[in-house]
Amino acid sequence: MTQYIPSQSSSLDDWLCYLEGIHPTNIEMGLTRVTAVAEKMGLLSLKSKIILIAGTNGKGTTARCLEALLLAQNFTVGTYASPHLIKYNERVRLNGQQLDDHYHVAAFAALEKGRGDISMTYFEFGTLGALEIFRHTEPDFILLEVGLGGRLDATNIVTPIASVITTIDLDHKEYLGDTRELVGFEKAGIFRGVTPAIVGDLAIPASILNHGKAIGANLCLAQQDFNLSQNESGYLWQSGDNKIRFSQPAIPAQNVSTALATLNQLGLLPTESVVQAQLSRLKVEGRFEILSQAPFVVVDVAHNPESAAYLALKLNAYKEQGYEINALVGMLKDKDQPAALKHLIPIVDGWRVATLTGPRGADADFMVQILTELGVQTLQKFASVAIALDNEQITTNKQLLIVFGSFYTVADAISYWRNKEEA
């Protein structure tokens, strides 16, 4: 049977279905295929200045902060991020806005024609699709979020003017290794010689430092070259003689600090008033995002130990105000569920678990077993996030429901809430 190949007149959904099935595996690390196609398509010599952003957590929020602060200085900015929550269009932004379907369709059609017989994964196709869009729109800056690791990630084919590592934690251990040193080495693969290499992690693995020094990267390190301190009135960021004060942002303050250090290295540090103004309105979908005030429902994509620990801190602030914290969690089978969930055990008063569909999704019985082994005695299980939300009963204004554990969990919750509001 001849495989259907979409055309320039096909829908974006048709293209995405096609891309999901053209490569034997969803993930295949390596730069050979994607580099060959990029060279054929002229995507390795873009006019835009590119900033690469890697890290276990914080890539999206750091990129969003950089995007806002560059736009505030009247630069044009293209941003590539993954994964998306609801629509593929979330992955590519131009000046902070998602693009219409036809941009992606045109890019995919060009790549399909130009790749010849070279096979690419869904993510590789998407990465080159973003670069193809940016080749035509020519933004001043391109912010590229690394998908997995760094050294062998498809985004690492470009020549950046700066490379950023946000944080290091254990995730995707089957690809990146099971120690912070191994993960750090993979992330450090985005560094280039004689180029700013900014690291926001507060306990930087030696593998990052050693690799950066070995290739002659211009290292800029948290707690050495830039610092962030907190007091009753907010935060103070400092690098040399440069100081910027800002209030509690909606994103992790350390990611703001890393973004500021990056702009400082590039000679683009905004004024304190610009930083404060942009942070006051900065929000990132799925990161402690409030879906409803009454009932009080919050979603967060936390799915690994580091992000779960940060979520616990956020929730504890509400617990100290007298809130009862209820949690609805759904996770993927290939994550370290116990290491992540243990941070929430002391904070959460009531647990609900939901089955995530798909080959990687963990079912509710599996999650019940994990939580039971962690000492949780009372919990409810549901066949889906939607069914769990249908059965949720928040009876007082001092109850908070946090829905977390995966991008898929959060996407299901957002879709449920949007459908509820539209009904």
Automatic annotation (TrEMBL):
Keywords per UniProt: ATP-binding, Folate biosynthesis, Ligase, Magnesium, Metal-binding, Nucleotide-binding
SUPFAM superfamilies linked: MurD-like peptide ligases, catalytic domain, MurD-like peptide ligases, peptide-binding domain
EC annotation from Swiss-Prot or TrEMBL: 6.3.2.12, 6.3.2.17
Pathway given in the UniProt record: Cofactor biosynthesis; tetrahydrofolylpolyglutamate biosynthesis; Cofactor biosynthesis; tetrahydrofolate biosynthesis; 7,8-dihydrofolate from 2-amino-4-hydroxy-6-hydroxymethyl-7,8-dihydropteridine diphosphate and 4-aminobenzoate: step 2/2
PROSITE patterns tied to this protein: FOLYLPOLYGLU_SYNT_2
Record domain Mur ligase C-terminal: where: 286-407
UniProt keyword tRNA processing present: no
An example molecular function term from Gene Ontology annotations: dihydrofolate synthase activity
Gene3D superfamilies, per the entry: Mur ligase, C-terminal domain, Mur-like, catalytic domain
GO BP: folic acid biosynthetic process; tetrahydrofolate biosynthetic process
Reactions mediated catalytically: 7,8-dihydropteroate + L-glutamate + ATP = 7,8-dihydrofolate + ADP + phosphate + H(+); 10-formyltetrahydrofolyl-(gamma-L-Glu)(n) + L-glutamate + ATP = 10-formyltetrahydrofolyl-(gamma-L-Glu)(n+1) + ADP + phosphate + H(+); (6S)-5,6,7,8-tetrahydrofolyl-(gamma-L-Glu)(n) + L-glutamate + ATP = (6S)-5,6,7,8-tetrahydrofolyl-(gamma-L-Glu)(n+1) + ADP + phosphate + H(+); (6R)-5,10-methylenetetrahydrofolyl-(gamma-L-Glu)(n) + L-glutamate + ATP = (6R)-5,10-methylenetetrahydrofolyl-(gamma-L-Glu)(n+1) + ADP + phosphate + H(+)
Pfam families, per database record: Mur_ligase_C (PF02875), Mur_ligase_M (PF08245)
GO cellular component, one term: cytoplasm
Residue span(s) of domain Mur ligase central: 53-197
Classification via NCBIfam families: folC, PRK10846.1
Function: Functions in two distinct reactions of the de novo folate biosynthetic pathway. Catalyzes the addition of a glutamate residue to dihydropteroate (7,8-dihydropteroate or H2Pte) to form dihydrofolate (7,8-dihydrofolate monoglutamate or H2Pte-Glu). Also catalyzes successive additions of L-glutamate to tetrahydrofolate or 10-formyltetrahydrofolate or 5,10-methylenetetrahydrofolate, leading to folylpolyglutamate derivatives.
Family: Belongs to the folylpolyglutamate synthase family.
Protein name as annotated: Dihydrofolate synthase/folylpolyglutamate synthase
Species in which this protein is naturally found: Pseudoalteromonas tunicata D2
